[in-house]
Specification:
The chain has helices spanning 3-6, 8-13, 18-24, 61-69, 91-94, 116-127, 153-168, 196-199, 204-220, 232-235, and strands at 52-58, 74-82, 102-109, 135-136, 139-140, 146-150, 179-182, 186-188. Helix 7 links the parallel strand 6 and strand 7. The model is unreliable at 12-29 (pLDDT under 50). It contains ten helices and eight strands.
């Protein structure tokens, strides 16, 4: 069973016990190092106006969400589930690895500030390791697979061209295993999963696996890093 799921009870209400549990289970493995890669040769056409959304999966959604919450141009990053039905889009059910879902992040962004190509460059470079099949760091199972859930033909074209480009130039030491899957639905995860790295920055899993990703974003993409994250919690606050 994946390490994060084995501590689901702690996630909900006993975070103070987490350090001993994580260390006793050997969950001190650090995040994979970031990889410097070129930007995509093919990018999306800038729309006349309005925001765009792409759904990405690459291991635990806590870290993926944290990266994009700190990315300039992103207006909202929501943790959730894609690849299965609405009825099975629940954390414990997804953990059975029989729902077809992947832990995913819906990334809404302003294309006047950041392109789809740059979103994907960050995804492949610092948000996860695209050469790991059905696992990321200490977590394993198809719900942790690397996948881009494309909403339209342009997203599919840009993503496919970029994967081919990175493989042909041997940007990584192994082939990219990221799957391109049509987006059939995105279902937000439970409230306690949202903004997890922001709310619980000292949680051992976050310290070992996810904060390094945010630091890599800051180091490798300084022009696209923002110190104050855009959060789901803030977006849901009623206006005064």
């Amino acid at each position: 069973m994946a390490s994060k799921r084995s501590t689901s009870a702690l996630i909900a209400g006993a975070l103070l016990l987490a350090p001993l549990m994580m260390l006793a289970s050997g969950h001190s493995r650090a995040a994979e190092p970031a990889v410097a890669i070129p930007p995509p040769a093919v990018d999306a056409t800038a729309p006349a106006g309005g925001s765009q959304t792409v759904v990405l999966a690459g291991g635990c959604f806590w870290g993926m969400q944290a990266v994009y919450e700190h990315t300039k141009g992103v207006t909202l990053a929501v943790s959730g589930y894609s690849g299965g039905s609405k009825e099975t889009a629940h954390y414990q059910m997804v953990g059975t690895e029989r729902t077809g879902h992947a832990e995913s992040v819906s990334v809404t962004y302003d294309p006047r500030q950041i392109t789809l190509g740059k979103i994907l460059q960050i995804y492949f470079s610092v948000a996860h390791n695209p050469t790991e099949l059905n696992y990321q760091g200490p977590d394993s199972g198809t719900s942790y697979r690397s996948a881009i859930f494309y909403a339209n033909d342009e997203q599919k074209k840009v993503a496919a061209a970029y994967i081919e480009q990175l493989d042909q130039t041997h940007a990584f030491n192994a082939p990219i295993v990221t799957k391109l899957e049509p987006l059939s639905g995105f279902y937000p995860a439970e409230d306690y999963h949202q903004d997890f790295a922001v709310v619980h920055p000292t949680y051992p899993y976050i310290v070992f696996n996810d904060l390094p990703k945010v630091e890599n974003l800051k180091r490798m993409f300084p022009d696209y890093y923002r110190d104050t994250p855009v959060t789901v919690l803030a977006s849901n606050k009623p206006t005064q």
